[in-house]
UniProtKB/TrEMBL annotation:
<dbReference type="Pfam" id="PF00528">
    <property type="entry name" value="BPD_transp_1"/>
</dbReference>
<protein>
    <submittedName>
        <fullName>Peptide ABC transporter permease</fullName>
    </submittedName>
</protein>
<feature type="transmembrane region" description="Helical">
    <location>
        <begin position="12"/>
        <end position="38"/>
    </location>
</feature>
<dbReference type="InterPro" id="IPR035906">
    <property type="entry name" value="MetI-like_sf"/>
</dbReference>
<feature type="domain" description="ABC transmembrane type-1">
    <location>
        <begin position="107"/>
        <end position="338"/>
    </location>
</feature>
<feature type="transmembrane region" description="Helical">
    <location>
        <begin position="315"/>
        <end position="338"/>
    </location>
</feature>
<keyword id="KW-0472">Membrane</keyword>
<keyword id="KW-1003">Cell membrane</keyword>
<comment type="similarity">
    <text>Belongs to the binding-protein-dependent transport system permease family.</text>
</comment>
<keyword id="KW-0812">Transmembrane</keyword>
<dbReference type="InterPro" id="IPR045621">
    <property type="entry name" value="BPD_transp_1_N"/>
</dbReference>
<dbReference type="GO" id="GO:0071916">
    <property type="term" value="F:dipeptide transmembrane transporter activity"/>
</dbReference>
<feature type="transmembrane region" description="Helical">
    <location>
        <begin position="211"/>
        <end position="230"/>
    </location>
</feature>
<dbReference type="Pfam" id="PF19300">
    <property type="entry name" value="BPD_transp_1_N"/>
</dbReference>
<dbReference type="GO" id="GO:0005886">
    <property type="term" value="C:plasma membrane"/>
</dbReference>
<dbReference type="InterPro" id="IPR000515">
    <property type="entry name" value="MetI-like"/>
</dbReference>
<keyword id="KW-0813">Transport</keyword>
Length: 348
């Protein structure tokens, strides 16, 4: 008789975990299928990309057979699926390295930039959203909403170019596009691939300062677009919480307005807000392609763009799968975190 409550609690947890795994596997297989068929639809022959347009016909046919491109489409998909699940995305035509090797080198740069941008967006966006909700209808609320609207409306590549003209070409406040000055490129040995973290860990503060001068402008741009989303969602969550009965009760008890807003309303709004910040972070990881291209940032977005321009489809598809996998993982993790933090979403 005493074991039934434990079993009753274990069954919903097991069901939720099973549902989580089914969604993750199904979504990932869908991602692999989409990338596979995109690779077959684009008007780029992978054999000619490897051999060149002047390769003899018999060599082209031999390489096509070696790559399995003469097989039926379902057999090609099976081979592609098996290779992708083992982390083998082929060899890059542009760098002659395994695609996964190039991605391991480029992805930390994207993650560092997206992390910096998310921190900026969260630190500024959350207080702005709270302030806009508390001062609803005031000039402060209107300004915050306009700032967010501009963040959604202005193309990021245009804003990046204008920022370079102002802060680099005119004011000389930031460094040249790239990740490090050439003076440090061949002397600095990164450990994790996160230059700010690695340089601080090694005590190379000249490298840290140089890396900071390179990352600050693109990170602020990404942070601004993250801020637009986070501030809008924070405002919406806070307006909902400020209308709840517990807020009225807290004010009736004589609690200070600061404690009511920051200690009660924001605390309850923080549960869905964690999911919003996680989704914003995932969006910056996958959506920083244009920013990395403008600032010559050697991340995964710049790698994919450069590979696409050189018809290197192995690299393009491999990078797309990695970014898609990270995006799926963060989405599922944020959903799991939301269900964990908010007891109301747990099914009895």
């Amino acid at each position: 008789m005493e074991m039934r409550p434990a079993k009753g609690r274990a069954l919903p947890i097991a069901t939720a975990i099973l549902r989580f795994l089914v969604v993750a596997v199904t979504t990932y297989l869908g991602l692999l299928a989409v990338t596979f068929f995109i690779g077959r639809v684009v008007p780029i022959d992978p054999v000619l990309a490897i051999l060149g347009d002047r390769a003899p016909a018999h060599v082209v046919e031999r390489v096509r057979r070696e790559l399995g491109l003469d097989l039926p489409l379902y057999q090609q998909f099976y081979i592609y699926l098996r290779s992708a699940l083992s982390g083998d995305f082929g060899t890059s035509v542009l760098t002659t390295n395994p695609v996964m090797t190039d991605i391991r080198r480029a992805f930390p740069a994207t993650m560092e930039l997206a992390t910096f941008g998310t921190v900026i967006g969260s630190v500024i966006g959350v207080p702005l959203g709270v302030l806009a909700a508390v001062k609803r209808g005031s000039i402060i609320d209107q300004v915050v909403r306009v700032v967010g609207l501009i963040g959604y409306s202005v193309p990021i590549f245009w804003l990046a170019l204008i920022s370079l003209v102002i802060f680099y070409a005119r004011l000389k406040w930031v460094a040249f596009p790239g990740r490090l000055d050439i003076a440090f490129e061949y002397t600095f040995e990164p450990i994790t691939g996160f230059y700010l973290l690695d340089s601080a860990w090694q005590g190379q503060w000249d490298v840290f300062y140089d890396a900071f001068r390179h990352i600050i402008l693109p990170a602020c741009l990404l942070g601004y677009f993250s801020l637009a989303y986070i501030s809008r969602m924070t405002r919406s969550f806070m307006l909902n919480e400020l209308g709840q009965e517990y807020v009225v009760a807290a004010r009736a008890k004589g609690l200070s307005e600061t404690r009511v807003i920051w200690g009660h309303a924001l605390r309850n709004a923080a549960v869905p807000l964690v999911t919003v910040i996680a989704l914003s972070y995932a969006g910056l990881l996958e959506g920083s392609v244009l920013t990395e291209t403008v600032f010559s940032w050697p991340g995964i977005g710049f790698y994919i763009t450069n590979s696409l321009q050189n018809a290197d489809m192995n690299a393009v598809l491999g990078g797309t799968i990695v970014i898609g996998t990270v995006f799926i993982a963060i989405n599922l993790l944020s959903d799991l975190l939301y269900r964990t933090l908010d007891p109301r979403t747990r099914r009895k």
